[in-house]
Amino acid sequence: MSVKDDCGHHENPRKKLYRRLLAFSVGLIILILFIILITWLILRPTKPHFTLQDVTVYAFNLSSPNLLTTTLQITLSTHNPNGKVGIYYDRLHVYASYHSQQITLPTLLPDTYQRQKDNTVWSPFVYGVAVPIPPYVAVNMNQDQSVGRVLVNVRVEGRVRWRVGTFVSGNYHLNVNCPAYIDDSGRKSIINNDNGLDHVATAGVKYQLVMDCHVDV
């Protein structure tokens, strides 16, 4: 038997061992992924439920030329409806908008882990000082105020992760929209700006809303 043939006999068992180890590793990874997938499909996490509890208006002033100053305190609650899945809330920002125009700066909410069937409440302030709005938006606001109801949308954007046991999913985009109807029959003062548009300045008025929010994940 030649030296070359002898080396070939030594290499074959090594190759077989490597192949077996590789096949075992791949099979183990596939099995783990399959178990995670089955667990995920069985539990199938349900998106959280957001509720806008109340809004306190400290400033809502429209001045010339179409500059809006807003100060609101928002009480927002979220409920985790899942019995076996926890939720991580990451980098959530809340802000107010009117007719699809953002009228306050975003306020960062603290990162939060929510256990199964648990509730979380936030009460952030949102501010916007002399925010320019288009003239047609100012006209719409004047019309809404003339009928006594102004619709402001409280929006939350950020990321969520799901936790099942020790497994934590990747990030999912969270988009929340909460309608807040502000009744102008509260404390207010009517002022005329240079464009002839009436606007309302309201301070320290709390509106109990308890409005369900639309949630996209």
From TrEMBL:
Record keywords: Membrane, Transmembrane, Transmembrane helix
Transmembrane segments: 21-43
Signal peptide: none
Pfam families for this protein: LEA_2
Domain of life: Eukaryota
Tagged with keyword Transmembrane: yes
Localization, UniProt: Membrane
Coiled-coil residue windows: none
GO cellular component, one term: membrane
UniProt domain Late embryogenesis abundant protein LEA-2 subgroup: residue ranges: 75-178
Protein name stated in the entry: Late embryogenesis abundant protein LEA-2 subgroup domain-containing protein
Organism listed in the record: Penstemon smallii
